[in-house]
Amino acid sequence: MAESTPFNRAFPVSWEELHRNAKALTWRLIDKGPWKGIVAITRGGLVPAAIIARELEIRLIDTVCVSTYDHQNVRESVVLKGVEGDGDGWLLIDDLVDTGKTAMIVRKMLPKAHFATIYAKPAGRPLVDTFITEVSQDTWIYFPWDVEPQFSQPVAQLHRKG
Ligand SMILES: O=P(O)(O)OC[C@H]1O[C@H](OP(=O)(O)OP(=O)(O)O)[C@H](O)[C@@H]1O
Ligand SMILES: O=c1[nH]c(=O)c2nc[nH]c2[nH]1
Ligand SMILES: [Mg+2]
Questions:
Q1: ipTM attached to this prediction
Q2: Where is xanthine annotated to bind (predicted)?
Q3: Which residues surround ligand 3, an ion (CB under 5 A)?
Q4: Which atom of ligand 1 lies at the shortest distance from residue 101's CA?
Q5: pLDDT tens digit string along 124-135?
Q6: Is 97 assigned to a binding site?
């Protein structure tokens, strides 16, 4: 039997929307710098970090590699790679905070970094310094790199099923 998850809503994000939101995040970050560089939290933080690096004209980019999910199932975080220093003057980027588990680990590694994400759910929100859009805790965000186009049921049919 498939494992159940706490996600009742789907929030699909297109490449265009992600690009626009990453640029919007840059506008919120520009006056908070200057930044020595960016630390991207892989893998989800890589695309937002690339867009933000382009907009802020930052070429020094490092990674912290952390994995906390198997698809929608949360588990023990695995840290595959850390980074030197305390993060002072660095921008730390991820795609989102959900439970805040990943953020808690990375903030401990880089306590002085400025942590920014595009999306935040309520449980993780207090751990983020700057973000763009909040979605509810029971929403799963579908990023464009994780999906492909497929048939979707007409609303009338979904409605009839209740
Ligand atoms: O706030 P949390 O509950 O920790 O969830 C947020 C984290 O989960 C996802 O990463 P994931 O572990 O799926 O790895 P990935 O970035 O390699 O896809 C996402 O990219 C965040 O890093
Ligand atoms: O693609 C994703 N969407 C989410 O909503 C989420 N929450 C934790 N990790 C996530 N990954
Ligand atoms: Mg991640």
A1: 0.99
A2: 98, 141
A3: 44
A4: 4
A5: 999 999 999 999
A6: yes
